[in-house]
Amino acid sequence: MSDLELRNITKQFPGVKALDNVSFEVKNGEFFVLLGPTGAGKTTTLRCIAGLSKPEAGSVLFDGELVNELTPADRDVAFVFQQYSLYPTMSVYDNLAFPLRSPMRKVDEENIRVQIVQTAEILQITPLLERKCAHLSGGEMQRVSLGRAIVRDPRIYLMDEPLSNLDAKLRESLRVELQHIQKTQESTTLFVTHDQIEALTMADRIAVLNKGRIIQIGTPDDIYDRPATTFVAELVGTPRINLVKAVRENGNLLVKNSKLKISLPEDWDPPADFLLGVRPEDIKPNPEGEFEGELTLMEPLGVETILHLTSGEQTLISLIPGMTDFKIGENIKFDINQERLYCFDNKGISLLC
Amino acid sequence: MAEIELRQVEKKFGELHAVKPLDLTINNGEFIVLLGPSGCGKTTTLRMISGLETVTGGTILLDGKNITWLHPSERDIAFVFQLYALYPHLSVRQNIAFPLQAEGESRDLINKRVDEVVEVLQIQHLLKARPGKLSGGDQQRVALARALVRRPAAFLMDEPLGALDADFRESMRAEIKRLHIDQNATSVYVTHDQVEAMALGDRIVVMSEAVIQQVGTPNEVYYKPANIFVANFIGSPGMNLVQGVYSDGAVKMPGMDNRYEVPEDWENTLKQSLDDSDGLIVGFRPESAAVAQDGNLVGNVYAVDMHGAYSMLHINMNEHDIVHIRADRMVNYSIGEDIRFNVDPQMVRFFNPASELAITRREVE
Amino acid sequence: MSNFREDGPGYPVTEATRVDKVSPESRIFGKLRALIVVVIAVIMLIPVFVMLMTAFKARSDIVSSPPTVVFEPSLEGFVFLFTERAVVAKARQEEFKAAAETGELSLVDRVAFEAGQQVTGPSDYVDRLKNSFIIAGLSTIFSVGLGLFAAYAFSRFDVLGKDDLLFFILSTRMLPAVVVTIPLFLMFRQLSLNDTHLGMILLYTVFNLSLAVWLLKGFIDEIPIEYEEAALVDGYSRWQTFYKIVLPQAITGIAATTVFSLIFAWNEYAFALMLTSDNARTAPPSIATMLGRGGIEWSAIAAGSLGFLIPVVIIVFALRNYLLRGVTFGAVRK
Q1: Which residues, 6+ apart, have CB-to-CB distance to B73 below 8 Å?
Q2: To the nearest whole angstrom, how far is the Cα of C189 from the nearest Cα of chain B?
Q3: Which of A180, B29, B49, B98 has a CA that sits 20 to 30 A from residue B73's CA?
Q4: Closest to C252 (Cα-Cα) out of C229, C220, C210
Q5: Are both B92 and B217 inside the same structural domain?
Q6: C182 at the A interface (CB within 8 A)?
Q7: C21 and C142 inside one domain
C-alpha cells in the first residue's frame, strides 16, 4: 500500500475548470473520502490519479515518487467504477481473473485460482463464481466489481461512487462490509461520493470539494463540528443545518423575520449582520423552553422525528428522538443548545474557526 | 378524491409471479407508501392501478367503480414518473397545461388552473423555460404541477425522488408532504427508501418477494414489525435480531455468556408460542440499547461509525451476531474494547425463528 | 358478448403490456396491421417471383401474352447463360435431330438444339461471377477492417478536426458515381489500373469506407468507455483492450456493417461497366449485356440474375440476427 499526494492539480476542460489547484495527502492505509455534489470534480480527481486523465498542471505522487508520466497500467492502482465495470459476456470467475491475466502481471493460472478463491471468500461471492455476469443482482455485481479491485492487491484503491446505484438497504450493508474489508486489509483507499452519510461513517478523513476546489479537509468530527464554510455545514448532517440571517443587538442575537432572541455566546464577536447556524439536534422541544414556534410540518422517521417549527417567517428544523404526540398547528416551546451555535459571515465563511 | 381498493390483484410475467394476489384498501385522502427492495412488486402494483400494466387476476376499484380494464386515460389518475417525463420541446407552462388541453378544457379554465398549481409549487419564475435547462428538483416540481393540474382522483408516484441528489431529496420530500397536507389528495407512492416511507406515509405497505409483509402506520411498522423482514427493513440500520435459546424466563444468547431476562409480562406469551422448540429471536433497535457499566449484556466493539449527531457502535456478540447501538458521539470507544449494555425491556420484540413472525402479546387493557 | 371494460379480456394476461393493448379492438387492429404487412410483403416479392419463373421458362412462354403462370419448366435459360452458342446451319439440322433421338447429345446440347443452336463453348458468366466474388469480397474486408480502426480512433481519441474529418468522410458518399467516372477512368488509365482487379478493389474499398466508418463509429460509441478504462488500469495495453473487449462487444455492429458494404460492392454497376471491359468485369454489367445476342434472351438474364442473387441472400440470411440489431442501433440512448 502506498501514500498518495496531490500537489496543485489543475484540470481544464473546454469552457470549464474542472479542478483548480487541488492538493491533499492520503496516508498509507487511510480511508479517505472525497465528498461533494455532482460536478464538483471528484471523478476528475480520481481519473487524474489513475492516469486516465492528464492534468494541465500539478503533480501526483505515490510514496513521494512522481507518477505523472506513468500509464494507468504502470501506476498499479485499482479503479472501481460506478457502473459498467463487469464484462457481461464473461463469467464472474473470468471477470475476477481478468486483471490478473493482464500481460503486465504474468500470473500463472494456479496462482490466479488461489487469489480468486480468497477474494471470493472475503466478499462472500463464492457461490457465484461460475455465473454469467448478466444474471447477477445489483448488489452482487458491485461485490464482484470490488472483487476485481481487491484481487489485484494494488497500491491504492480508487472508488467512484460504487454504492450510488444500489437500493438504500443494500447500500447500508455493503457500506459496513466495505469498511470492514478496508480495515482488515489496511488498504489506502480514496472513495468518492455525494452521500454525506457514506462520508461520515466510512472516512478516516474527508476532503470537501465544490466546483473544482477543496473547501475543507478533516476528520468526520472536524467537518461536522467545525465546518469552515456554510457549504460544508450544509453538506453534512441530516436533516440539514438551520442557517438563518441574524443581526447583533445589545449582547443578543436576533433572528430576522422571527421573534427569536438568543443571548450572545461568550467568545463571539460577529459583525452586525451575519448567518447563524443551528443543527436540528440542538433544537429541543421543552414545555419550559425559552423560545416558541408553530409546528408546521412533522416527519416521523421511527427512530427520530423531524419537526418544522415556524416563528414569524422563519422555519427552524428540529430533530427529536423517538415518536411524538405533537399535532400540526400546535405551538411548541423549545430550547436551543447555545454551546453549539455556528457563526458565518455573509460570504459563508465561518467566524469561529 | 377517492378510495382505491385492490381485491386479489395479481400479476404474472410468464411463470414469474411478480405480484401475488393482494388485498389493499387505500382510504380517501390517504398517503400510502409501497415500500420494498427492488423486485418486490411495488412498482408493478402501482402500474396496475394506473393501467400501464394489465392484471393477471383480481379487481381494482376507484370509489366503488371497477377500473380494472379501463384505458389509463379514463381512470382519472395522475402518474408521476421517476424520470419526470416532461416534453422537452414545450415550455414549462405548456407542459403543465398539456393534460388539460388534451381533455379539451376551455382556455380560461386552463389558465386558471395552471396559475393555481404554479402558485402552490412556487415555480412562477420557471414558466417560460424549457425542461432541459432546469435542475432535477425543478423538473420534478414541474412534473408534480402537471399531475396536480388535472385534479385527479388519485396521484400515483413512482420513486419520484430517486434521480435527485441526496440533499435535494430531503427538501423535495418535505415539499411533497406539505403538498399532500394542503391538497389532501389520495396518493400512492412507491419507494425503496424506508426513510422516505416513514417521513411521508400515513400508512406504509411493506412488500417483499411479491407479497405484502405488513400494512401499518409508520409507528406500527417501526415499533411493532409483523415479521423479521419488516423488523430488518425498517430503520437504518434495521432492528438487531439475536437468536438465542429460551428457558426459565431468560434467553441465553450464544457467545460471551449473555443472558437476557425476559420481562414478566412476556413470559406467558412466550411459553405458549414456543411449545416444542426453544429457539427464540430477541429484537431491539439501536436506540433502545444503551451502553452501561453494569449492563446485562456484553459484547466486543467491532467498529465505530460517526453518524453526525450520534455514533453507531457495531458490537460483536459472538461470531454470527453483530448488533448496532446508538451512542453518544462525544465518548470514545476503541475497537476491540469489551462493552456492556442494557436493552430497554419496553422496546424489545420477540420473533419465532422458524416462522419468522413476530410473537405478539395480547395487550392487557 | 362480453364487455371488455367490465370483464376484461377473458383470459389471464401474463405479459408486460398496457391495458388498452389487450382490448378486443386493439387485438383486431393488431391482426389487421399484420395482414396489411403480409400483403405488402407479398407485393414486394412479386418481381423476384417473376424473375424466378422466367428463369425456367422456354422462350415461347416468356413472350406469350397474357403471361403464363403455369408452364412447362425448361432449362433453356440456364443453358443459354452458361454457354456460347452458334446457330445450327440448315445443313446440319438433320444430323442433330438424329443424334438427339438416339440420345447421343448431352442434356445441354439437346436443350440448345431445341432452340436451333449448338454449343460452342462455355460463356464467361462463371468468370464474371468469380470476379464479383473476389472484388466485392476483398473490398468489403478491407473497407470494414480499415473502417474499424478509423472508427475506434474517432470514437475514443481526440483527433484534430474530428468533426470536419467525419463530415468530409460522409460527404464522399453524397457524390453520384456518374460525376467521378470520367476522371476516374482517366486516372486509372494513367496508372494502368484500367480493367484490373486491383483497381476495382481499391475503388470499392474507398467508396465503402465512408459508410463503414460512420456505422462502426456509432456502434463503438455505444460501448461504455468504462470497460476499456478498467482494462487499461488493470494493465492491458490499448491494442489488447481493443482486441479483447471492444471487438467482442462490437461484433454485431461489424456484422451489420459488413452486410451493408458487401451489398453495395456486390451490386455496383456503374463503375463496373465503365472501368472494366474484359478481365475484371463483374457480374452486374455482364448480365445486362446479355441483351442483344441473337435476340433478347430473357430466360438467360433471369437465370443470371438468380445466380447473382443467391450468394448474397445466403450471406444475409446467415447474418440476419446481426442485421436487425444494426438497423436499430443508436436509437435508444440510456
Answers
A1: none
A2: 56
A3: B29
A4: C220
A5: yes
A6: no
A7: no
Mutation target vs B (from A176, A240, A325; most B CBs, 10 A cutoff) = A176
Largest Cα separation within chain C, whole Å, is 89
The answer on C131 and C118 residing in a single domain is: no
Both A172 and A194 in a single domain? Answer: yes
Domain annotation covers residue A349: no
Give me the sheet containing B289-291, strands edge to edge: B289-291, B338-343, B297-306, B311-316, B322-327
Contacts of A103 in chain C (CB under 8 A): 235-237, 240
Reading the block at residue A220, the C-alpha cell is: 468526520
Among residues B195, B226, B257, the one where a domain terminates is B226
Domain boundary among B197, B226, B255: B226
Q: What is the largest CA-CA distance in chain A?
A: 78
DSSP state of A57: E
Tell whether B361 is covered by a domain.
Answer: no
Reported pTM: 0.83
Q: What total of structural domains would you count in chain A?
A: 2
Range of the domain at C9: 4-55
Distance from CA of A21 to the nearest CA of C (A): 25
Same domain (yes/no): A147, A247: no
Neighbours of chain A (3+ CB pairs under 8 A): B, C
Question: Is-contact B43 B158, C-beta < 8 A?
Answer: yes
Comparing CA positions, the residue from C172, C179, C192, C203 lying closest to residue C272 is C203
Amino acid at A189: T
Phi, psi of B247, rounded to the nearest 5 degrees: -160, 140
Three-state DSSP class for residue C173:
helix
Contact across the interface for A281 and B309, Cβ inside 8 Å = yes
Question: Which DSSP letter does residue B360 get?
Answer: P
Of the candidates C224, C226, C233, the beta carbon closest to that of A78 is on C233
Question: H helices then E strands: how many in chain A?
Answer: 9, 20
- Reading the block at residue B126, the C-alpha cell is 420557471
Q: Could B308 and A197 be called an inter-chain contact, meaning their C-beta atoms sit closer than 8 Å?
A: yes
From chain B, which residues contact A within 8 Å (Cβ)? 37-38, 165-167, 170-171, 173-174, 177-178, 181, 192-195, 198-200, 218-219, 221-223, 233-238, 285-287, 302-303, 305-309, 312, 314, 329
Rounded distance between C-alpha atoms, residue A7 and residue A20, angstroms: 11
Find how far residue C322's CA is from the centre of its chain: 16
Where in the sequence is the domain holding B250, given as residue range(s)? 237-351
With contact defined as 3+ CB pairs under 8 Å, the chains touching C are A, B
Range of the domain at A195: 4-229
Determine the 3-state secondary structure of B353 from DSSP: coil
Same domain? For B103 and B182 the reply is: yes
Identity of residue A142:
Q
A159 Cβ under 8 Å from any chain B Cβ = no
State the cell numbers at B276: 416444542
Q: One digit per residue, pLDDT tens: chain B, 365 residues?
A: 589 999 999 999 999 999 999 999 999 999 999 999 988 999 999 999 999 999 999 999 999 899 999 988 889 898 988 887 888 899 999 999 998 888 888 899 899 989 988 888 888 888 888 988 888 788 888 888 888 888 888 999 999 888 787 777 888 898 899 889 888 889 999 999 999 999 999 999 999 999 999 999 999 999 999 999 999 999 988 999 988 888 877 888 877 678 888 887 777 777 777 766 778 889 999 999 999 888 888 888 888 888 888 889 988 888 778 899 999 888 888 888 888 999 988 889 999 888 888 888 765 43
**Chain B closest CA to C2's CA: distance in Å?**
13
**In terms of domains, do C310 and C324 share one?**
yes
d(CA B286, CA B263): 19
First to last CA, chain B: 37
Kindly determine whether residue A303 and residue B287, on different chains, have CB atoms separated by under 8 Å: yes
